[in-house]
Amino acid sequence: FELGTLPYELLAGVTAAVDLIASLGTGSSRREQLVSAAASIAEHELRLRERIEDGLADLSDHLTLHSRAADRTSTLFLTLRDRSPLDAHAFLAERDVMVPPGTFYAVETFRALDLPVDSGLRIGLAAYNDDAEVDRLLDGLAAFLA
Asked: Measured on CA atoms in the order 24, 72, 99, 61, is the torsion positive or negative?
């Protein structure tokens, strides 16, 4: 069987991504650099997530934060009281904040929480996010809920 031409552009992209991540770490071997970089990225994302959680606590009269496990990814899920997540998404998008509404393929979680499938907002963090973006998110959400 012939598999056809490999997706070389994708393979090059993966190599470049691994090179970039390794450059963020320290160590004498590539593995040590990648492990160090992964730890630094996780620490950065955790710090930003905690800032968001602290900011959302100030808005707790208007929303419910559902993602509270201690050991998890830097993704938050919340529902709004008396406001549409679609309207929140549009409001925040106008301020260059991407906070999409929906289930994110976690339909069973919505069922377990007895939530309508269109009721939530997802806040996801990555290594490239920074404090200014967290500030823009929290300020925008506070303005929307005001």
From this structure: negative
Q: Would you say 122 and 104 are in contact if contact means Cβ atoms under 8 Å apart?
A: yes
d(CA 26, CA 54): 31
pLDDT of residue 107 exceeding 70: yes
Which residue in 49, 47, 15, 50 sits closest to 34, CA to CA? 15
Whether the CB-CB separation of 90 and 75 falls below 8 Å is answered with no
**pLDDT value of residue 72:** 83
Please report how the helices 131-145 and 85-93 are oriented relative to each other, as an axis angle in degrees rounded to 10: 130
Q: Which residue has the tokens 């996780």?
A: 42
- Residue 79 carries which DSSP code? E
**115 alpha carbon, distance to own chain's centre:** 21
